[in-house]
Amino acid sequence: MNYRVPRTRKEIFETLIKGLQRLEYRGYDSAGVAIDGHNNEVKERHIQLVKKRGNVKALDEELYKQDSMDLKVEFETHFGIAHTRWATHGVPNAVNSHPQRSDKGNEFVVIHNGIITNYKDLRKFLESKGYEFESETDTETIAKLIKYVFDNRETEDITFSTLVERVIQQLEGAFALVFKSIQYPGEAVATRRGSPLLIGVRSKYKLSTEQIPILYRTRNFENVKNICKTRMKRLDSSTCLHAVGDKAVEFFFASDASAIIEHTNRVIFLEDDDIAAVADGKLSIHRVKRLASDDPSRAIQTLQMELQQIMKGNFSAFMQKEIFEQPESVFNTMRGRVNFETNTVLLGGLKDHLKEIRRCRRLIVIGCGTSYHAAVATRQVLEELTELPVMVELASDFLDRNTPVFRDDVCFFISQSGKDDGFVLVHLRALSSW
């Protein structure tokens, strides 16, 4: 987001595309961007979506084919978002890629890392309310849900961050989300749970604070929120981060520091359930619930590393980096699924099938490569907790042997990417027709 920093549409494109290119090492199958479109004669706001299956270069080429967008148009304040997607729900194509939209008018758009485990229930509810879906993704459910909350708001002056707060309270799973809306021009809201998200800050002017206090709904949040919201002229530097004197500042949202390190080395790392909102060049962070272990503020940290170091850290190769990151990866995987306060587990999509699973006589866990290794690693725990025999099968060998599977067996198919579920369902339907 550039606030009082003039940028042409071409410069905005270049910044977004370069950020995506820094994340290409992760792997992806499609990409997309959302930027402000042209204002028409009656000055209606518009968000332009450009999405493309394939690599970032293909998206870059597609951007410059958009005849309706003047690349020389300059924006003093603008918020653009971009995303690369690795398909977990739905096939790789432009419709399923991000940003996902709330409706054909692009009233709300969102980009999302992670998986929403209760999206089917949410989708069913929204469809019953008349909302039409155009993709197969779990992310579109989030875009439709925030539209539903907005359409059913109690007051006209509801803030963008309040909408997002209400949305994430309905979500199960892991996510990092960034929202943009024509209803809140020049504003951005981001939040995370179990998926990394950071905010880079760049300004040639002095910043109001180095420690952003965490605001809470339960403690005069409404009063503090009004200080930072869009239409307030008076400023309280103790609750918002901004450039002193309401001067130029830029904010960069990213899942990885490598995407923004060439723009700034000053970053804020968001924690689970943080909701960060930017309006009128002012950044505030709030949370819904206060926990005893909560840090009262988020500090601006200065990264000392160069771009190549950020991407690989202190490791000689990405594989080595990923090996040493496994403990953190396991912990992040459990976020949004394991509630450490109540010592309970959210089983997401499994909860509707618990009766059948409890009646089974044997568990069969099937996977390839690292998915197979994960199955072997968890076999002992599964046997101890369920007191059932657990078989672990290599998928290719399992298929070749034509292994007998009985009515009272339960099979778990593990996929590293989540892309194989469609193939599995087709195969199972074929088996059931025999």
Overview of the structural elements:
GO terms for molecular function: carbohydrate derivative binding; glutamine-fructose-6-phosphate transaminase (isomerizing) activity. Residues 1-281 form the Glutamine amidotransferase type-2 domain. The chain has 434 residues and is of the alpha+beta class. The protein folds into 2 domains: 2-312, Glutamine Phosphoribosylpyrophosphate, subunit 1, domain 1 (4-Layer Sandwich), CATH 3.60.20.10; 360-432, Rossmann fold. Helix content is 29%, strand content 26%. It contains 13 helices and 22 strands. The strands form 5 sheets. Strands 6-7-8-9-14-15-11-16 form an 8-stranded mixed β-sheet. It has a 6-stranded antiparallel β-sheet with strand order 4-1-12-10-13-17. Strand 14 (275-279) and strand 15 (282-287) form a beta hairpin. Helix 4 (139-151) packs across helix 5. The longest helix is centred in the C-terminal third of the chain and has 17 residues, at 370-386. It is globular and about 70 Å long. The relative contact order is 0.10. Residues 219-225 and 229-235 have low confidence and may be disordered.
